[in-house]
């Protein structure tokens, strides 16, 4: 397993080249993802989608970006101008910085020299924690953008977005713990190297499922796009933004989509390792093939984002928060306890693995049954409330008219 000593020794021009390449890749990926989303959703809805600007409409995203840049830039009179201008930067800069620790591939030789360098800008002993930290910084930009706009709708959108992202960041962080226990490291490159035989998405499937749900909520994407609920908040935290500043929020959203997809690929799908059965080929993980495997896996997750947007309706806000705090987090904690127990026994011995897995499966079935019992009780309570509302109501029973009891939504 490669160590962290291979990082930090590149020449300054090579580091600058890597940073520029990452920036260019993210910008092109964003333009492509916007086009792909519009085309795929159009196909799902039996429409055409972008087809005029460029071949197959590929330049439509670029045309939209130019329109936003050239559009008149407005600042509300009641806005705090300094914070209003800085908020989009606080959101978009961490989105790009996160990719500094994402491994695109193993160590490779530059085609014009004999220099070997890892296909990664840098790495840290706590690389995954760095990703979470950058995501947390982005939340400040959203809150400040909503607060500094001087609009009630923007403020409510910012508060809802921050509550949503913070809640699902907890579940996202808990889903990483099982990966850390198996890999024995928080470094992204070492986690990928530890998956050379089997992917953690298979042996740690509950963590993978929790992460996939959390990453959709973290990026404010449908069906969890509650901060932008048009019927309630007009447009969310960026209601008062226009022109280039709105474009930065839009850019950060699509970069974050790619970021969580790349992180899922790194932690659960083997990173740049070739998928089975291509992995049996000796040259599958050599040259620049790993970059293609990595980008292919990322694009699969991007398609899942688009698929969800074109398929599922938006959830109610209380249902969404209730699901995160009362379902995802308890399941994540119980799964971490089970994984830690299994890992300790596996390292120290003392019990056969099949009996351990059977006990864990029984515990998961019991816990799932308890969740269904709780949902049944809530459903019965809602039915009782509905029957009470449907009963005959005498407004003059107390001698004077009173309004009927409020209905449970």
Give a quick precis of the structure.
The chain is mostly helical and 409 residues long. Helices cover 64% and strands 1% of the residues. The chain has a two-stranded antiparallel ribbon with strand order 1-2.
Provide the descriptors you would attach to this structure in a database record.
mainly alpha, two-stranded antiparallel sheet
Walkthrough of the structure:
- The chain folds into two domains: 66-339, no CATH class; 351-387.
- Helix content is 64%, strand content 1%.
- Strands 1-2 form a two-stranded antiparallel ribbon.
- It has helices spanning 12-44, 60-70, 81-97, 127-148, 152-183, 188-193, 200-203, 205-218, 230-233, 243-268, 289-311, 317-348, 353-390, and strands at 107-109, 116-118.
- Helix 1 packs parallel to helix 11.
- It is built from 13 helices and two strands, in the order αααββαααααααααα.
- The termini are far apart.
- It is an all-alpha fold.
- GO terms for molecular function: NADH dehydrogenase activity; oxidoreductase activity, acting on NAD(P)H, quinone or similar compound as acceptor; quinone binding.
- This is NADH-quinone oxidoreductase subunit H.
- It catalyses: a quinone + NADH + 5 H(+)(in) = a quinol + NAD(+) + 4 H(+)(out).
Q: Tell how many strands the DSSP assignment holds.
A: 2
Structural Rg: 25 Å
Largest sheet: 2 strands, antiparallel
Globally, the shape reads globular
Beta percentage is under 5%
EC number: 7.1.1.-
Family: Belongs to the complex I subunit 1 family.
InterPro entries: NADH_UbQ_OxRdtase_su1/FPO (IPR001694), NADH_UbQ_OxRdtase_su1_CS (IPR018086)
Organism: Kribbella rubisoli
